[in-house]
Each structure stands twice: as C-alpha cells, then as structure tokens.
Amino acid sequence: MYRMRYKDTIEESVQNVREHEAALFNRCVKLLQAAQKAGLKTPEVLDAVIFIRKLWSVLIKDLGQEVNVFSGEMKASLISIGFFFLKEIDRLEKGEEIDFDTLIEISHSIRDGLTIPKIGS
Length: 121
Prior knowledge:
single chain; mainly alpha; 79% helix; 0% strand; globular
C-alpha cells in the first residue's frame, strides 16, 4: 500500500512539473504572438524578450546538469534550440526583424510534447 502511494505521488509530481513547463511554453507562444502583432520596439516585444530570455536561460542551465534525466542527444538538441531562441530574441531586442512564426511553431511543439495524458486516463 505504501509503495503504491509513493509511486502515485512521484507520478503526480512529474506530471505537475510537465504541466507547469507546458504552461510556460504556452505563455511564450502568447507573448510571441502579441509581439508579432504589435511590431518592433514595442512594450510587447520587451515583455517577450524578458520572459523568453529567462525561460531559456533556466532551461539551458537545467539541461547542462548531470542529474538531468534526458539523454545526451536530447539535452544537446534542446540546448541548441535554446541558443537559437536566445540569438533570435537578442536580434529582436535590437529592433531587427525575426521569424516569429518559426519561434511560435517550435514553442507549440515543445509545449505539445510536454502535454501528457493524465495517469489513469
């Protein structure tokens, strides 16, 4: 009985983390869409830049940790995506045009990958 409860708690914890990460990427999408609509050098662009820089900085740091459970290949791929995002938002912050649609599509894909069915569903 105890082991079953422990297992349920661990599974719920992992699911909660994934749901939180999916929500962060959902916010990323919304901020990118707002920035795209508002245009360069607007408060919406600044909001997107600040949020995305923080998000990817934390993710890259986490992915670089030995205790991260992702495979080396997965870590490398996600870190590369993170560096791509950071480069693009640096350009955006400077007032340069970027491909918002690509960043939005990638964010959607990551968010959708984090969205897992509820256990027992």
